[in-house]
Design goal:
Blueprint lengths: L4 H20 L3 E2 L1 H5 L2 E2 L2 E6 L2 E4 L1 H6 L4 H5 L4 E2 L1 H6 L9 H9 L1 E5 L2
Parallel strand pairs: 1-6, 3-5
Antiparallel strand pairs: 2-3, 3-4, 4-6
Length: 108
């Protein structure tokens, strides 16, 4: 069975458009959903209107775990920029980790 050329073109365009729209749709996380991730077992934190899943970071950050857990399910923007009581910015390594942990934007 031969597929007509116009059907092939249509299918290619359909797949391409579906792929593009799938990548461009960003997950929007509500305050209710964010609040459901307020523990060390599932720790999502807001920084600058983006939501990050820092559950994995809690294990790596044992020294400051209590400080991080305080912001699970909440905004930690100010704490991110001041490192809490330390009052200095995070390292470039921490910034890269944060970027990799981004899971969506926060719906205020």
């Amino acid at each position: 069975m031969t597929i007509p050329m116009n059907l092939k073109i249509f299918l290619c365009i359909f797949v391409l458009l579906h792929t593009i729209t799938s990548f461009s749709k960003e997950r929007v996380i509500t305050a209710k959903e964010l609040a459901e991730h307020a523990s060390s077992q599932s720790c999502w934190i807001v920084v600058d209107d983006s939501v990050y899943d820092l559950t994995e970071d809690l294990e790596q950050h044992r020294k400051h775990r209590v400080g991080l857990e305080e912001f699970c399910g909440k905004s930690g923007t100010e704490a991110w920029y001041t490192k809490g009581s330390v009052k200095k910015p995070h390292s470039k390594k921490a910034e890269l980790f944060l970027k990799k942990s981004r899971i969506g934007s926060w719906e205020k």
